[in-house]
Design a protein that fits this description.
Helix content is about 35%, strand content about 20%. The protein is α/β, with parallel strands linked by helices and about 180 residues long. α3 packs parallel to α4. The protein is globular, with a radius of gyration of 16 Å.
């Protein structure tokens, strides 16, 4: 992803005014059975698929689920998935992801979101359903932003420069998330 796309979409201003895309950076680790030994590692990013026909639109989380489901996940294989999202999942996506995890107990999901998608009714319930399905959910800190910058951004070897308010915005949204998940 190019640096401007990353900064524009992941900048953790709680309002996120005018930002309608969700970017999802992912890492999938395939673990060898119960031994926990890493067998393979895949990473990449994707975003919402938009279309004038609402039936053909797909949120980033559902695009990822479609993609990984095509693998025909083997129950004897353990998968550890980490998502870095520009927005936390909307209520509908959260329910779909929770259902996917309940059907695939051999998949472990970790979510780090830049912002909370709080513009839809039921967003709290959606986040709680992910939590109840065993997902570790957190708000991105400087460490996650800097990691994404190195791992997913074509940064031309430029270092990550935190924006003004990154820490304050993280603390605000992290407190908000903790209240939701209680």
């Amino acid at each position: 992803m190019d640096p401007d796309t990353f900064i524009y979409n992941f900048k953790n201003n709680p309002l996120g005014t005018g930002k309608y895309q969700t970017y999802l950076c992912y890492e999938v680790q395939l673990m060898n059975g119960n031994s926990g030994v890493l067998q393979n590692w895949i990473k990449g990013f994707l975003c919402n698929q938009s279309d004038p026909d609402p039936q053909l639109c797909c949120h980033a989380e559902l695009c990822f689920l479609d993609w990984i489901s095509s693998w025909q996940l083997y129950p004897g294989q353990h998968y550890s998935i980490t998502w870095f999202l520009s927005w936390s999942p909307c209520p509908d996506c959260a329910q779909e992801v929770a259902a996917f995890l309940q059907r695939n107990s051999h998949v472990r999901l970790y979510i780090f979101a830049a912002r909370i998608h709080d513009c839809c009714e039921g967003y709290e319930e959606g986040l709680r359903s992910l939590d109840n399905a065993g997902t570790n959910i957190g708000i991105m800190t400087y460490r996650e932003f800097e990691y994404c910058w190195r791992a997913f951004v074509d940064n031309q070897l430029w270092p990550f420069k935190p924006w003004r308010g990154l820490k304050r915005n993280h603390e605000f949204m992290s407190n908000q998330l903790q209240r939701i998940l209680q």
